[in-house]
Write a structure and sequence with these properties.
1% helix; four-stranded mixed sheet; mainly beta; rod-shaped; 345 residues
């Protein structure tokens, strides 16, 4: 008995003898059905191995030779859609077809709004310091600048020290001798003898000696000790040698005279109470004036009484300062000293 299977090209429904065939949703989904361009009026025929679509042929009779295919009959009216058959089991997946060509790239869509900036990451640790670069070559020396204007002339230097004192003048002439005294009177002549010559009378007494004439005027010359060194510190002044001392080299610091007789004889033992002595000290000065800041007699400090009541507190530059000390002994090792200070330039 043969069955008639109909496929509805509109709905895809498959019926067999007017009854829906359940299972697969589409005829081509069945594993034993091979459809080739089905058209209206085609029916499925089993060719011994699978179902294929073909035109509907005539009924039974003996199997004679197949006559020529008759003309296709007019399509019958579509029968009513039968109920959907049960879904058949899914066929095995067919092999994947070759990948189709890549479609043309679509136009780039508009740029989306910029997203909010993310939080900054924590700072990475500082990398090690790279090695110092080699020192660059020294650039060429720049041109010498213009010579600056000449400085103003320096102030005139100080006047040089005074020349050495001149030589002592010649000694004055000796005073005239006094006049000779008058001759005494002659004694009386003896009487003349009348007879023999009498004895000679005694010689008359010698007359008184004439008065001595006035002494001639003599010139007094005082010695001086000239010292070719500078006054500085404590300086010994030996009066037994001379009472005038002249230091010809410029003073180099303040000084203190120590007045004595000699290095082994004190002034106290050389003078008696009620005697006096005047000692003069002359000091050359250079660009820095120094002065006698104190006084000693036999190594003991003595405070002089200064003329005008003021003791010196400076020296005079480029001059010669003269100090005069009149020393009066009033008792044993007790002194009154009258002092004065003058400048010669």
């Amino acid at each position: 008995m043969s069955s008639k299977i109909v496929v509805d090209n509109t709905t895809g429904e498959i019926t067999a003898d007017g009854q829906p065939i359940g299972g697969a949703a589409a005829l081509a989904d069945l594993t034993d059905v091979a459809l080739a361009s089905p058209v209206a009026g085609h029916v499925l025929k089993f060719n011994g191995s699978e179902w294929v679509n073909d035109v509907e042929s005539g009924g039974g009779g003996g199997a004679g030779s197949t006559g020529p295919t008759g003309p296709t009959g007019a399509a019958g009216a579509t029968g009513p859609t039968g109920p959907t058959g049960a879904t058949g089991a899914s066929g095995s997946a067919g092999s994947t077809g070759p990948t189709g060509p890549t479609g043309a790239a679509g136009a780039t869509g508009p740029t989306g709004p910029t997203g909010a900036t993310g939080a900054s990451g924590s700072a990475g640790s500082t990398g090690p310091t790279g090695p110092a670069g080699a020192a660059g070559a020294t650039g060429p020396t720049g041109p010498t600048g213009a010579t600056g204007a000449s400085g103003s002339a320096g102030s005139t230097g100080p006047t040089g020290p005074a020349g050495a004192a001149g030589a002592t003048g010649p000694t004055g002439p000796t005073g005239a001798s006094g006049s000779i005294g008058a001759t005494g009177p002659t004694g009386p002549t003896g009487a003349t003898g009348t007879g023999a010559t009498g004895p000679t009378g005694p010689t008359g007494a010698t007359g008184p000696a004439g008065a001595t004439g006035p002494a001639g005027v003599s010139t007094t010359v005082e010695g001086i000790t000239i010292v070719a060194s500078a006054l500085t510190g404590t300086v010994a002044i030996d009066t037994a040698t001379n009472q005038v001392h002249y230091y010809t080299v410029n003073s180099s610091a303040n000084w203190t005279p120590n007045i004595r007789s000699t290095g082994s004889v004190s002034l106290d033992s050389a003078m008696s109470v009620g005697q006096s002595m005047t000692v003069t000290i002359m000091a050359a000065q250079g660009s820095s004036g120094y002065y006698a800041s104190s006084l000693q007699i036999d190594g003991v400090s003595v405070t002089p009484k200064w003329a005008g009541g003021l003791s010196p507190s400076f020296g005079n530059e480029y001059g010669t300062d003269v100090y005069s000390y009149t020393i009066i002994k009033t008792a044993s090792a007790t002194w009154t000293v009258l002092a004065s200070f003058s400048t010669f330039a």
